[in-house]
Amino acid sequence: MTVPAAAHVSAATPASPRALAPVELVVLDIAGTTVRDDGVVERAFERAAVETGVAERMPWAEALDYVRRTMGRSKIDVFTHLASGDIPRAEEATAAFERAYADLIATEGVEPIPGARETLEALRAAGLSVVLTTGFAPATRDAILDGLGWRPLVDAALSPVDVGRGRPAPDLVLTALLRTRASGVASVVVVGDTTSDIASGRAAGAGLVVGVLSGAHGRDALAGAGADAVLDDVSGLPELLGLPAPRGIDA
């Protein structure tokens, strides 16, 4: 089943809306888009940097600025930059990051963005395919999904290791399309909180690319990266797509 895209995209749209194909697949980021971050990713990066010394060639403030600017990208790619191309050291730091993140969510728990579960349910109720994507390793990704009980709500969850390249390359989006057998890229909606999410959607040729303000990057950055619309959070997505308001969310 497909649903027509909304007749208009949003007042936040940086350019005139494009004619959109019927929507078949929605690809959503995890941390900052559907799952609350609350600085956990940054703290995990810091723990990994301290443990491995991967960013010792630069002041931590400079390294942290790079981490923030590249939120959404594959963690091994980020650490490879911080390690000046030293792949073994980047792999060591990535493993340390995944351990640190797992420890933090085990201690503090994992919480969805308000309205995220209801939004996933609304998308599925409309007959759409739903795929979650992330720069995390599969073990971390799966711990988040299991902690939230979201596996029944999605058709697939993908990490860079599953597809070849992480964001901003289009591989996560295109693999989601192939896994769900959507008819073409024009039928895909991509949603994320980082400029890397937006760049990945644009590179894939997605019919609609949506930024959300619940995570790493602000409205200007998301619009500048090419977002067709920028929402406060993912709970506004069903309305944007012309679907009924999710249960539990005020219309």
Class by helix and strand content?
alpha/beta
Rg, rounded, reads 17 Å
Number of domains: 2
Low-confidence stretches: 4-19
Instruction: Characterize the largest beta sheet: strand count, sense, and whether it forms a barrel.
Output: 6 strands, parallel
Tag the structure with descriptive keywords.
11 helices; 2 domains; globular; 251 residues; alpha/beta; Rossmann fold; 10% strand
Tell me about this structure.
The chain is α/β, with parallel strands linked by helices. It has two domains: 25-36 and 111-240, HAD superfamily/HAD-like (Rossmann fold), CATH 3.40.50.1000; 40-108. It is 43% helix and 10% strand. It contains eleven helices and six strands. The protein has helices spanning 40-52, 60-69, 75-82, 87-108, 116-125, 138-148, 160-163, 171-180, 195-204, 219-225, 237-240, and strands spanning 25-29, 129-133, 156-158, 188-192, 208-212, 229-231. Strands 3-2-1-4-5-6 form a six-stranded parallel sheet, sandwiched between helices. β5, α10 (219-225) and β6 (229-231) form a beta-alpha-beta unit. It is globular. The two termini are 24 Å apart. 49% of the residues are buried. Mean pLDDT is 85; it is low at 4-19.
Present the secondary structure layout.
Blueprint: E1 25-29, H1 40-52, H2 60-69, H3 75-82, H4 87-108, H5 116-125, E2 129-133, H6 138-148, E3 156-158, H7 160-163, H8 171-180, E4 188-192, H9 195-204, E5 208-212, H10 219-225, E6 229-231, H11 237-240
Parallel strand pairs: 1-2, 1-4, 2-3, 4-5, 5-6
Could you give a short description of this structure?
The chain is α/β, with parallel strands linked by helices.
